[in-house]
Amino acid sequence: MNMSKQKIIGLSLYVLFILVPIYWLVNMSFKTNEEILGGLSLWPQNFTFDNYMVIFTDPSWYMGYFNSMYYVSLNVIITLTVALPAAYAFSRYKFLGDKHMFFWLLTNRMAPPAVFLLPFFQLYSSVGLFDTPIAVALAHCLFNVPLAVWILEGFMSGVPREIDETAYIDGYSFPRFFVRIFLPMIRSGIGVTAFFAFMFSWVELLLARTLTSVEAKPIAAVMTRTIGAAGIDWGVLAAAGVLTILPGLLVIWFVRNHVAKGFALGRV
Amino acid sequence: MNKVENNKAWFLVLPVFLLVAFSAIVPLMTVVNYSVQDIFDQNHAVFVGAEWYQEVLRDPRLHDSLLRQFMFSFAVLLIEIPLGIAVALMMPTKGKMASLSLILLAIPLLIPWNVVGTIWQIFGRADIGLFGWTLNSLGMDYNYASNTGDAWATVLLMDVWHWTSLVALLCYSGLRAIPEAFYQAARIDRASKWAVFRHIQLPRLKNVLVIGVLLRFMDSFMIYTEPFVLTGGGPGNSTTFLSQTLTKMAVGQFDLGPAAAFSLIYFLIVLLVSWLFFTTITHMDKE
User: Fold this and answer.
1) Cβ contact, residue pair B274, A106, below 8 Å
2) What is the pLDDT of residues B56-115, one digit of tens each?
3) What is the pLDDT of residue A1?
4) How far apart are the C-alpha atoms of B259 and B254, rounded to whole Å?
């Protein structure tokens, strides 16, 4: 198979392209600042865990991870709960203003985030949610929910209507059909949606930083702290960067089977 | 697909509508409000009509960064969309290798944006970074901090590194949603690989590609953190994109009125271009 050999080489090259900067990040995280700034070395000469120790022993660091995970999970749950029924409605029914509504949803992802900062701060302060994970989770819904609806609608439209109708004829109620038959058919779409919702919420910095001060400070905001008067603490920043990748890897590990699984027609 | 007329479907959409409207409408009204007033302090503001809009539209800074921004987003789409499709097609479909390649591809997406900038800032340096060092020892005079072309190439490369995976993951999951029966039919017809791609895979990828193109356009059009961390928009103003010009105006000079007018114009441009993409791609389908 000549073709698949080409595929393997192409994919390997691309993965290499992705991994080299990551390797550099990991490499940096085990070095002292003197060594990082001192010159080029392909692996740590004075191997150290100090950068990681800083993060694991300082509550403001590890609580940052905890806070981020808290609001990100909340956001993913809210996003999927509201987006699944809505996407079904958009993919199956015609209703008053459906097309406008569909496009309007996405327009909320288009406004420059800097525009929303001050109004958001005022809005969430006035309802008493400032500095809570709920505020960040809700704020991130602004860009995650529309995206989720769009992605899910795309996948749902790929499922032929006949499947819905057959299920009703077979006596399925709507909720039972939706959960038992329909959702498994679009599992690759749900997997990728969950991952994207997680990812966009996890890396977002501007809103998360504006809506929190002490109690719910996210990890990405804690990281900007390493930029102090004495310059950037490169080692700790690199270690923190490495640690930000891990929860996401866990998430993609859980959804990977759904993303990788296709659907076979005629399951009903 | 034939859709059924059913206005009760509104109830399925209502939670989404309320949730998004809660976060979107109040802030947007505030911005519109700022853009037509001259604000002195909390209680003193004068209605100035369209004055800020005229001022911003005449501002050469806007013209420069807008042109730069379009060039950048165009380059991003031109590279990332085909590359993303190609990567998705190369990925294995079953077994451990499929999981492994999914996980590896996802890594760049999971790093907070400021850290992405930081990694490349070091990675590209000629003295202590592998990338810069390698280029320079190959005889290239690469320096992103002083050479405009190098700064552009670095920001572009950084974006490709960071975001191509998003297109690839979307397309990969889209490919998985193609029923096996389609491929079986193609095998019976002895269709070539290209024919399978052109007539089965590409049309079925349309839905996810619309999302991929729109997302990459919108996000690259709003790029802020990466060039900011890398060179602060330099050398000169060569990598100062729209978001940075806006932030300088709003935070640096605290010109709330013009900044609000600027952001609404910005918003309308993204809206217009996205709408053009969207209608063009969905219309191609009907023909």
Assistant:
1) yes
2) 888 888 888 889 999 999 999 999 999 999 999 998 887 788 888 889 999 999 988 888
3) 42
4) 8
Answer yes or no: are the C-beta atoms of A144 and A212 closer than 8 Å: no
Residue contact A86–B13, C-beta within 8 A: yes
Comparing CB atoms, the residue among A18, A123, A158 nearest residue B108 is A18
User: Pairing state of beta strands A231-232 and A227-228?
Assistant: antiparallel
Burial of B31 (0-12, 13-18, 19+ CB in 10 A): buried
Q: Residue A22 and residue B108: Cβ atoms within 8 Å?
A: yes
Q: Quickly tell me which residue has 């590209």 as its tokens.
A: B124
Specify the pLDDT at position A228: 61
The encoded tokens of residue A197 equal: 């919702």
* CB interface of A with B, residues 66-125, below 8 Å: 78, 81-83, 85-86, 88-96, 98, 101, 103, 105-116, 118-120, 122-123
Alpha-carbon span A192 to A197, nearest angstrom: 9
Q: Is A53 on the interface with B (CB under 8 A)?
A: no
Q: For residues B4 and A251, what is the distance between their CA atoms, to the nearest angstrom?
A: 37
The amino acid at B50: A
Beta bridge partners of B41: B44
Determine the pLDDT at residue B158.
92
- A89 within 8 A of B12, measured Cβ to Cβ: yes
Q: What is the 3-state secondary structure (H, E, C) of A191-256?
A: HHHHHHHHHHHHHCCHHHHHCCCCCCCCHHHHHHHHEECCEECHHHHHHHHHHHHHHHHHHHHHHH
Query: Which of A7, A9, A93 has the most B C-beta neighbours within 10 Å, making it the best mutation to test the interface with B?
Result: A93
Residue B144 has pLDDT above 90, yes or no: no
The reply to whether A65 touches chain B by the CB within 8 Å rule is no
Residue of B nearest to A35 (CA): B128
Query: Cα(A183)–Cα(A189) distance, rounded to whole angstroms?
Result: 9
pLDDT for position B249: 77
Q: Are A116 and A207 in contact (CB under 8 A)?
A: yes
Q: Which residue of A has its CA nearest to B8?
A: A95
B119 vs chain A: nearest CA distance in angstroms?
Answer: 6
Bridge partners for B45 per DSSP:
B39
Contact yes or no for B247/B65 (Cβ under 8 A): no
Q: Does B115 sit within 8 Å of A245, measured CB to CB?
A: no
Cβ contact B222–A123 (<8 Å) = no
